[in-house]
Amino acid sequence: MRKRKSFGLFLLSAVLVGIIPADAMHSPGTKADTNTYVAPVYKALPLGAVKPAGWLRHQLQIMRDGSTGHLDEVYNKIKNDNGWLGGKGDGWEETPYWLDGAVPLAYLLDDKILKEKVGRYISWTLQQQRPSGYFGPLTKSERENNIPIGVSNAADGEDWWPKMVMLKVLQQYYTATNDARVLSFMTRYFHYQLEVLKTCPLGKWTEWATSRGSENIMIAQWLYSINKDKKLLELAALLESKSFAWTSWLGNRSWVIDAAAQQNDQHWMRRHGVNVGMGLKAPALNYQRTGNKHYLQDLHTGFTDLMNLHGLPMGIFSADEDLHGNAPTQGTELCAVVESMFSLEEIIAITGDPAYMDALERMTFNALPTQTTDDYNNKQYFQIANQVNIKRGVFNFSLPFDREMNNVLGMRSGYTCCLANMHQGWTKFASQLWYSATGNGLAALTYSPNEVTAKVGKNNIPVTIKEDTGYPFEEQIRFSLATQQSVAFPLQLRIPAWCEEAVVMLNGQKLRSEKGGQVITIQRTWNNNDQLTLQLPMSVRTSNWGRNSRAIERGPIVYALKLTEQWEKGHDEAEGDYFSVYPKDDWNYGLPEKVIATPAQYLQVSNIQPVTADFVWNLAHAPITITTTGKKIPEWKLVDDVAPQPVTDRNGVYKGKVNEKEEVITLVPYGCTKVRIVAFPVVK
Predict the structure, then answer these.
(1) Which of 194, 482, 498, 532 falls between 20 and 30 A from 25, CA-CA?
(2) How far is 445 from 495, CA to CA, in rounded Å?
C-alpha cells in the first residue's frame, strides 16, 4: 500500500507542477480500451418478479401509506401545476426523483392506485416527446414561440440532468410492463442527444449534468444490451468524455486525498457527496462498454480509498454536503446514501464482485433506516455517526445553511431533494435481491424476506422461491422452492466476508460448508418443495474507524449505544414542522481494552424479540442487543453540538481521565437509533 500511495502523491505533484497535463488525469481513453461490450455478470430481473415479504414488505407499505405514496398530495412543489404533466411548475429533478422510487414501489406491492398515479407522469412524458427526440416539460421557448425543440434550436432546450433521472424511471417501468414505447422513445432521444451534444454540451445549463453523466451512460448502455444499436455506445463514450472524470479520479488517488485536505469553495462539485455516490458506478460502466479490466481496478482502488479517508462505521462516507473526512462527528446526506446504494447495485450486476454486495448490505441495514421517521414522512438531511442529539445547529457540516435545519427530522428541512429522492433506497434494494445468473439460473446476492418468480433452466420452467428469514438479524435464511416439474438450474448464493464458515443444508441434510467472501453455485436438478437453508453464523467483532475509534459489529449490522430518546416538535416558518431528539441517558463512555482484545468474551448477544412482519427500525422493535461494560470519560462533552472524538495515542488508548468504575452498557442496531455513540474511544 505504501508504494501505491507514494505513486498517487507523485502523480498529484506532477500535475500541480505541470509535468503531467491535468487533462491526462481525466481521460479513460488512455487505458487502451478494447471497445468490446461486456455483458453484465448478473442481469436484473423484471420489476415485480421479486415480491418483498415480512419486515421488508411492511417497510414498503409504510412508504406507500406515507410520503412515497402521497408526495404529490402533500408537497406543493410536485403537487402544483407540475411541469412533468404539462404545467408550469416543477420541471427539474424532484418529480423524477420521486417517481424513481414511487414507480418500483407501485409494482413491488402491485398497488393499482399507485400504478395509476405514477402512470400519469409516464404517459405524459412518452406522449409529449418532440419529433426530434427531445423530451421533458415544455420549455420557456416552446411556450413563447410555439416551436418544439429540435436539432436546429436545441439551445432553447433545458437541462440534461433531470432527463437522466426520468430515463431511470422509464427503464424500471419498461422492465415491469414491456411497454414497447419506451424503447423507441429512448432510441429517438439518444440519437437526438448524440447529434446535439456537439453544440449543447452536458454543462450548458448546469454542472449537475456534467457531474452526473454516469446516469445517462448507464441507460444508453442498457438500451444497447437490448437493441445492439452501435450509436448508443458512441453516445456513451461521448458522454463519458464530457462528464466529470470519476474513473480517473477514483483510480489515480490524488482526488480523494485532495478532498480530505481541502474544504473550500474550489471544485466543490467534485467533492459533493451525492455526485460521488453517483460517480462510483462510472468505472464499472466504462468496463462494461470497453472490456478494459483496468477500470475494475480503478473502482476497487477508488472505493477502498474513499472508505479509508472518508468512511464512517455505518458503511457510508461523509457527505455534508462534501466529502469531509472520517471523523465520527461528520454528517452524511440522505441522497448520498440512496445514490451510493443504487451505484453498488449496478456495480454488483456488472462485476459480480461479492465485496460490493457486502458493502451494499452494510449501507442499507445501517445508514439507510436511521435517517427517516417510522412513518417515512420526515427525514434528516444529514445524519451523524456519533449523533448525541438531533437539533438545529451548525455542527461540523461543510454546508450548515443559515437556518441551521440540516440535522433535524422534518419533511422539508434542509434541501428538499432528499424528500423527493429518498424513496429509491428501499425499493431498488428490494427489487434487486435476486438476479438472473449464467446458465439461466438465479442468484441471491443480498438477503431479506421475499418471494421471487422466474423462468429457469434450458426450457424456461417457472419456479417460485420463497425466502423466509429475519435477516439481517437472524443467522438463518430458508429457501422453499415451488415448481410444476423438476428443473435443473444453477442457484447462486453469496457468503458474506464477515462469515467465517457458512453451512448449506438441503432438505434437512448438510450439503456443504463454504468460507466467506464468495458467491457459491449449487448446480442440481431441483424438485417441488425442496428446502434449502443457508446458515451464516454471526460472531461479534470490532472494527477500527476515524480517530482510532472502535465499532461493534455482528453480521452486517453495526451496534450503537442505546440511549433513551426525548422527542420535541418544533416549527420553522420557512421549512415547516420538524423534530429534535435528545438523549435522556449519559453517552460519554469508552470501551475497555479487554473488550477490543477479546470481543467474544466480553460482548453478550441477546435475542430480545423475533423479527415479525410489523417490524419497524426503532428502539422498541430492536430484536438484538449486545451488552458489555464501559467507562465514563468525564471530559468528553459536547462542543458546538457535536462530541469531538477523544484523542488517543498510537496504540489507540485514551490517556485522559477515565472513571474507574465499569458500568454495564447496552448496544442496539445502529439503524434502530436516532441518538447514539457508535464509534467508541478505547480506555484502560
Answers:
(1) 194
(2) 9
* Chain position carrying cell 470481543: 599
* Nine cell digits for residue 85: 404533466
Using one digit for the tens of pLDDT, what is the confidence trace for 604-648? 999 999 999 999 999 999 999 999 999 999 999 999 999 999 989
Given the C-alpha cell 428541512, which residue does it identify? Answer: 413
pTM for the full model? 0.95
Nearest to 364 by CA among 540, 541, 617: 617
Neighbours of 258 (CB within 10 A): 16
Cis preceding linkage at 21, omega within 30: no
* Residues recorded for the chain: 684
Cβ-based neighbours of 152, under 8 Å, separated by 6 or more: none
What single-letter amino acid sits at 208?
A: W
Q: Where are the beta strands (DSSP E) in 137-207?
A: none
Distance between CA atoms of residues 468 and 657, nearest Å: 49
**How many helices (DSSP H) and strands (DSSP E) are in the chain?**
23, 26
Measured CA to CA, the distance from residue 315 to residue 670 in angstroms comes to 11
Sheet holding 434-437, edge to edge: 43-44, 434-437, 441-444, 487-495, 518-526
Cell numbers at 481, concatenated: 422452492
Of 239, 173, 253, residue with least CA distance to 211: 239
Residues forming a β-bridge with 272: 322
